[in-house]
Amino acid sequence: MRKGQVVARIDPVRYQDAVDRAQAALQAQQSLLAKLRAGSRPQEIAQARAAVAAALAAQANAKATYARQKTLVESGFLPRQSLDNVTQQLDTAAADVQRAQQGLSLTVQGPRKEDIAAAQALVKADESALALAQRQLADTVLRAPDDGVVENRILEVGDMAAPQTPVLTLALNNPVWVRAYVPETELGKLAPGMRAGIESDSFPGQTFEGWIGAISPTAEFTPKSVETTELRAQLVYRVRVYACNSTQKLRLGMPVTVQVPLLNNAPQATSAHVCQH
Question: Which residue from 17, 32, 20, 18 is spatially nearest to 122, judged by alpha carbons?
Answer without folding.
Answer: 32
